[in-house]
Every structure is written in structure tokens, then in C-alpha cells.
Design brief:
The N and C termini lie far apart (about 120 Å). With about 260 residues, the chain is of the alpha+beta class. It contains five helices and 15 strands. It folds into two domains: about 80 residues, Immunoglobulin-like (Sandwich), CATH 2.60.40; about 140 residues, TonB-dependent receptor, plug domain (Ferric Hydroxamate Uptake Protein, Chain A, domain 1).
Length: about 260
């Protein structure tokens, strides 16, 4: 019996709750009077709300009148408005100026290491900087000093252990063009067939170039294939030797014998 009375009481109050809601309608406009679509409009302090249509109009139920409405949209300041009528409501949103407090630029290309006045940036790494890496071979020096260059030491992998597969920008060893004084250096005859980086490709033996003969190394990454062809998809590494290196080596060889 008590449950029946509670149910009847609930049915009695449902029309009262429905009657208490009021439908309001209006339009969201910008400073030029143009309608702004997809603006969020809510009744402050409640969960009642909606979004404006493509022409900026809106319509939804509020709990009471008068009440406060809040309209918000990205790029505009949130606007609150006290309303007392059910129709003809116009909410004008003001554009919010977007400013940057501080800009922080991080990168690996800066003077004097990188030639920035060329059509494309070129890393220019001197031999002193290479030696400061503490490594003994040129491929490991480049690994420590050149971004996106990676040479992996290989052990117990047949001929692959003689020189390490090296890649630039994550591409295979054969995608990097290696030059010596601007002339193409021959690639090795060894094909990486083991489970090593660059499997199925042919790389360049960087260890065959003595570090003592190097003056600097130039690394070109952006736009390399447009200048040097498909062999330079990953980039170009130009090894510049010291002056008179070839002459000095011939003299030492002659004196030895």
C-alpha cells in the first residue's frame, strides 16, 4: 500500500517538474554580427545546455527564469549573460587574442658547425671535434657527433665484423653516398646477409679511411638526392682530407723502402 502511494506521489510531481522547465532560444554572433556555429551554451550551475547550429542559433530548456547562460568557443572569450525572456536572446562573443609568451627552438644545426647560408644546411665537422668523441674509428666518431648517423659494432658475424653497417636518417647503408674530397668512394663487395642492420644491402667501409688524414667531414641530409641522385636518398658524407696527404704518404713509403 505504501509503495503504491509513493508511486502515485511520484506521478503527481512529474508534470510539475516538466512545467518548471522553460524553453529559451537565441543566437550567438561575433563582433560583425555573424552567427557562430557549434558554440557551447549552458545554463550556469546546471547540466542543461546545447550547441549552436550552423547559423549560430540555439534552443534548449532551462530550469527557471531569470537565469544565467554561459557561451564558450575556441578562439573566443567565454561570455555570461543574465536572461529574463525566453526568445530573442543574442550573445555576442569577443575574439580572444592568442599570444606566445616564449618561443624555445631546439635543434642540432647552428653556427659555426653548420653552414646555414647555403641553399641547404651542411654540417661541417672538424677533426678536433671528431677526436673529442673519444672513439678510435671514423664511423664511431660520426655516431657520437652526427645526429641520425648510426654505426653498430658487429661481432662473430662472418665478414660483417670487419666493418660495421652504418646508416644515416634510419635508411640502409647503401642509401648514403660517401665521397672523399668530392669524389665517390667505392662501396664494399660485401653484402650483409646476417641478422645485422642493413641486411641485404652493401655499405661503405668507413674504417679504411685513416683518421689522421682527415681534415673535416661535411654531412648533407636535406635535398641530397636532388643533387646527387638516388644513391644519396639518406644523404651525403664528404670526407675532406688534409692537404698534401697523398704526397706525404708517398714520401714515407719511399723512405721506408
Amino acid at each position: 500500500m505504501k509503495q503504491s502511494l509513493q508511486f502515485l506521489t511520484l506521478l503527481l510531481f512529474i508534470p510539475i517538474i516538466t512545467w518548471a522547465q522553460t524553453t529559451v532560444s537565441g543566437k550567438i554572433v561575433n563582433s560583425k554580427g555573424e552567427g557562430i556555429p557549434f558554440v557551447t551554451v549552458i545554463e550556469v550551475g546546471t547540466s542543461n545546455g546545447t550547441t549552436s547550429s550552423e547559423d549560430g542559433t540555439f534552443q534548449f530548456n532551462v530550469s527557471k527564469l531569470p537565469t544565467n547562460l554561459a557561451a564558450s568557443f575556441i578562439g573566443f572569450k567565454t561570455q555570461k549573460l543574465n536572461i529574463t525572456s525566453t526568445s530573442g536572446i543574442v550573445i555576442s562573443l569577443e575574439e580572444e587574442s592568442v599570444g606566445l609568451d616564449e618561443v624555445i627552438v631546439t635543434g642540432n644545426r647552428a653556427k659555426p658547425r653548420t653552414v646555414l647560408d647555403s641553399p641547404v644546411p651542411i654540417d661541417n665537422i672538424g677533426v678536433s671535434e671528431l677526436k673529442s668523441s673519444g672513439q678510435t674509428s671514423i664511423d664511431q666518431m660520426l655516431t657520437y657527433k652526427v645526429p641520425s648517423y648510426n654505426a653498430t659494432n658487429q661481432t662473430i658475424s662472418d665478414a660483417t665484423a670487419h666493418f660495421d653497417p652504418a646508416d644515416l636518417r634510419g635508411l640502409g647503408p647503401s642509401r648514403t653516398l660517401v665521397l672523399v674530397n668530392g669524389k665517390r668512394k667505392n662501396q664494399s663487395a660485401l653484402v650483409y646477409i646476417n641478422d645485422t642492420p642493413g641486411k641485404g644491402e652493401v655499405g661503405t667501409d668507413m674504417k679504411s679511411i685513416p683518421t689522421a688524414a682527415i681534415e673535416r667531414i661535411e654531412v648533407l641530409r636535406d635535398g641530397a638526392s636532388a643533387q646527387y641522385g638516388s644513391d644519396a636518398i639518406a644523404g651525403v658524407i664528404n670526407i675532406v682530407l688534409k692537404k698534401n696527404v697523398e704526397y706525404n704518404l708517398k714520401c714515407k713509403f719511399r723512405d721506408y723502402y
